[in-house]
Design brief:
With 907 residues, this protein is mainly α. The chain has 32 helices and no strands.
Length: 907
């Protein structure tokens, strides 16, 4: 506290002083700058005046010389060169005759802006501030605006705009005419006329398909749209057609549009046909239709898409059919499905799955091998994802049947992978199918025991999409995979109420295996990003996976293991996790893996205290085998860290040698307590492992350097400092221990606690004077050790008064006459020894230390011991002090003189 007060006062005093110094310095610099500016102006004026003085060639030579002399003189009035007037008369004229006038001075340089404007070439050669930053990519709004602008500025723009306007105009005209009653002809004739005009326009577009392709395709799409509107109006608005005929007419129109699209290789027309085909049941629906008819119609549409995929590689058409089929199917399943519809729904789900299992194969066959999107990732991974989720909804909790479905899907994908991997063209697609086969085969295990299929499927599919996106260097599949990982976590959290009860098999239930699958998927994503060089993303994925891994095991261990053995199990879990990460680090070094082992070693310390709380000491119960596993796997993990970065490996091994003294001190403290040993033995038992490891670090360093060896040498100073820091803290706490040595008698300096505290002082002395140079440089070694020795002697004196004199070891010890007299005598003896030894050896500092200690004792006599003059102990303290001062006056009456170095006499 006094140091803080002193520092605050020093800051308050120093602040105004430094401010005054700064102000004076600034004003001094300003004066110097002003003086320099005036000198520069004077020199410029003289430089301009010199040519003017030298121009007049008719002037007398003496005058010219005087001008030269004036010009040559300095601005401060110093003497210039010697002229002929100052030279002796015998010397000739030293100045040569002027042959030419002095050239005029150069004009001042123009500003940089002026010569840059005047000389573009020079301006171009001037270095610029740096390269311009690359322009940022357009945002989504800009891309949308660019797409709209492109649609209105490329292709046959007039026909595009004309068709849009035509639709709006015809609709408005029909509505107006209807409202005004101008159309008095029957509705049937009106609709027939519109249909005839549309058929004529369709025929005209087909006729012009070669000469005016863009115009013809747009016209055909518009006419088919008008015909669909006629059918819709005849059925919905006027009730002229029954639902079946209207539906059949719509199907025929859509099929015709698809045929026209394939024949003319018109993808836009095909997209329009598919879109209209999927929307036809929606706008023609009356709300009471059968789902069988709906799915049968969608099956026909998907068969048409499959047929188109046989001839054309139109990815957008495939995605459109996939989105509408499974989207409307999912919507119907959420709103209308009941278990009684299973028999009429399951075949359609299997049929749709087969359609979109075959379409990516046709798409890959139609794409050239050089295209990087040969694998249609959205359909390859999206089809099993959506279909299996719908299958889980159809089965509604029948997990064993769902597991059989997973095995069947895995077998299908395994067969496809086996067939495609042998072909170099479809090798990437085969790898994707192999990944799906492994995923669904793994998924069958938790599905047999749990209903959390959605989370597991999301996790596996997310890993597959990320892998595929990195393989193809496409961002969308990667984002989709990451989103699926988050969706898996949400699905798992929503199903937390279905966590297996204690009657479920341990480590063989869906909740545990599902969490492990999410963790393994995260690890796969981390490995994929790590291999692709995306290290930050890989670290995030690794932390995500590690959290799921630990969460799954901790939750399951909490159910499977008794509470008394839970810290032992968690200790094994920590070291196994760190060891597995270290083994991977050994083959593919990564700081994140090494940090996992470091964290495992770090968490072992609180687990040791938890073990002590649950079963008294860390090695009780299952603690001994747990720590045996920890020792073996931990050392193996340190060996594996040698393949990576030295700093991380050194930190882990440093933590290793700090952990074991802690654990062993807890064990030895329990042994001392059980053996009934006194408090002194208990304190020594706690400190003994730290003393041993500290001694090894000072005298047997190669033993502690393993397994890193010489690479661990830079950690020698931090390790010694940490060990001795712990011992110093223990040393300070032990000062308040009376040091009982029962069942042995207490003997000063020969009891366990005194010897251990003396050992700490000796270890510190050995470190401060260590020959390897690892000790702190510039440390006040002698004063520190002297202070520690003085404190230890004082405490040993008080312990002697307690054990031999019966003084109580509590707050009343300070008021004990015996304790105060003992301190007076011992301190006086120490002061006398310092006086005498310092005087005899000429050590002035030691003599002064003894004198200071005697002054302290004198102050103690005056302030404290005079209250005990009424008893023998107080009187004895005064007498002892007086006798010792007398002895000192005989042996060392004066301090030794300070050694003054003699200067050598000058030669």
């Amino acid at each position: 506290m006094e140091a803080l007060l002193f520092l605050g006062v020093a800051l308050l005093v120093a602040a105004p002083i430094m401010s005054i110094v700064a102000i004076v310095t600034v004003f001094s610099l300003r004066r110097r700058v002003a003086g320099l500016e005036s000198q520069i102006e004077a020199l410029q004026a003289r430089a301009i005046a010199v040519p003017d003085a030298a121009v007049d060639a008719a002037a007398p030579e003496g005058d010219w010389q005087d001008g030269a002399v004036d010009a040559a003189s300095g601005p401060s009035g110093d003497d210039g060169p010697i002229t002929d007037r100052d030279a002796p008369s015998s010397l000739a004229d030293p100045w040569p005759p002027r042959s030419a006038s002095v050239p005029p001075p150069l004009p001042p340089a123009p500003p940089r802006a002026a010569w840059r404007d005047a000389d573009p070439a020079a301006a171009a050669s001037e270095p610029t501030a740096g390269p311009m930053p690359p322009p940022a990519g357009p945002d989504p709004l800009a891309r949308a605006a660019r797409w709209v602008r492109s649609w209105f500025t490329t292709g046959n723009v007039p026909v595009k705009i004309g068709m849009l306007v035509l639709f709006a105009g015809v609709a408005a005209l029909l509505k107006y005419a209807s409202d005004q009653g101008y159309l008095s002809v029957p509705v049937e004739l009106r609709l027939a006329a519109v249909a005839a005009a549309a058929i004529g326009g369709l025929a005209f577009g087909w006729h012009r398909r070669d000469s005016h392709r863009t115009f013809a395709l747009s016209l055909q799409g518009g006419m088919i749209g008008i015909l669909l509107l006629v059918v819709f109006a005849a059925y919905k608005q006027f009730g002229m057609l029954p639902g079946g005929i209207a539906f059949a007419a719509s199907v025929a129109l859509v099929a015709g549009a698809g045929v026209l699209a394939v024949l003319q290789n018109a993808r836009a027309l095909a997209v329009f046909a598919v879109l209209a085909g999927f929307l036809a049941p929606i706008w023609l629906s009356s709300g009471g239709g059968s789902h069988v008819a709906l799915f049968a119609y969608y099956a026909v549409l998907n068969a048409a898409i499959l047929g188109i995929a046989w001839f054309r590689a139109w990815r957008v058409l495939n995605l459109l059919g996939f989105a509408f089929t499974f989207g409307i199917g999912t919507l119907w399943g959420v709103l209308r499905y009941s278990p009684g519809d299973f028999a009429t729904t399951q075949p359609f789900l299997a049929l749709f799955f087969a359609f979109y299992l075959a379409i990516p194969l046709l798409y890959a066959r139609r794409r050239p091998p050089s295209r990087r999107d040969i694998v249609d990732g959205c359909l390859v991974f999206g089809t099993p994802l959506v279909a299996f989720s719908l299958q889980a909804g159809l089965l509604q909790g029948r997990t064993f049947a769902l597991a059989l479905c997973a095995l069947g899907v895995a077998a299908i994908y395994a067969a496809l992978a086996w067939a495609l991997l042998r072909r170099s063209r479809e090798a990437v697609l085969g790898q994707a199918y192999a990944l799906l086969a492994v995923g669904f085969a793994t998924l069958a295990v938790p599905l047999a025991l749990s209903a959390r299929a959605t989370a597991c499927v999301f996790a596996l599919e997310g890993a597959g999409l990320v892998w595929l996106g990195l393989r193809q260097r496409r961002l969308l599949p990667q984002l989709s995979g990451v989103g699926l990982q988050l969706a898996a976590a949400v699905a798992y959290a929503l199903g937390i109420t279905a966590w297996p009860r204690p009657v479920a098999p341990m480590f063989a239930n869906g909740g545990f295996v599902g969490a492990l699958l999410i963790a393994l998927s995260g690890l796969a994503i981390a490995a994929a990003y790590r291999q692709a060089g995306r290290v930050p993303v890989a670290r995030i994925a690794y932390v995500w996976a590690l959290a799921w891994w630990l969460g799954a095991w901790i939750q399951e261990l909490g159910r499977a293991v008794p509470s008394a053995s839970l810290p032992d199990a968690l200790l094994v879990l920590a070291v196994v996790t760190g060891w597995l990460a270290a083994e991977v680090h050994h083959r593919r070094p990564d700081p994140a893996l090494g940090a996992t082992l470091f964290a495992a070693l770090l968490v072992a310390a609180p687990l040791a205290f938890w073990q002590m709380q649950t079963h008294v000491q860390p090695f009780a119960g299952y603690g001994a085998p747990a720590w045996a596993v920890f020792a073996a796997l931990g050392f193996r993990g340190l060996v594996c860290l040698r393949a990576g970065e030295d700093r991380l490996a050194r930190a882990a091994q440093l933590l290793w040698w700090l952990l074991w003294p802690l654990v062993l001190s807890l064990l030895l403290g329990h042994v001392a307590r059980v053996a009934g040993l006194a408090g002194g033995w208990f304190a020594v038992a706690i400190a003994l492992p730290w003393l041993v490891v500290s001694a090894l670090s000072l005298w047997r360093w190669p033993w502690l350097a393993q397994p890193l060896g010489e690479r661990f040498d830079p950690t020698r100073t931090p390790l010694r400092g940490a060990l001795l820091g712990v011992l110093a803290l223990w040393w300070l706490v032990a000062l308040g221990n009376p040091g009982d040595s029962a069942p042995l008698p207490w003997i000063a300096l020969l009891n366990p606690l005194d010897l251990a505290q003396l050992g700490v002082v000796l270890l510190l002395a050995r470190w401060l004077w260590s020959p390897d140079g690892t000790a702190p440089q510039g440390a006040p070694r002698v004063p520190v050790l002297s202070l520690l020795a003085f404190v230890l002697v004082t405490v040993i004196t008080l312990r002697a008064a307690h054990h031999w004199g019966g003084a109580p070891w509590n707050a009343r010890l300070a008021g004990s006459s015996l304790a105060q007299t003992s301190l007076t005598v011992v301190w006086s003896i120490l002061g006398v020894l310092g006086w005498i030894i310092g005087s005899r050896r000429g050590q002035r500092a030691l003599w002064l230390a003894g004198a200071v200690l005697m002054a302290v004792v004198l102050a103690k006599l005056v302030l404290v011991d005079r209250g005990h003059l009424g008893n023998l102990w107080g009187i004895g303290s005064f007498i002892a002090y007086g006798l010792l001062c007398t002895v000192v006056g005989f042996f060392a009456p004066a301090p030794p003189r300070a050694v003054v170095p003699r200067e050598e006499a000058p030669a």
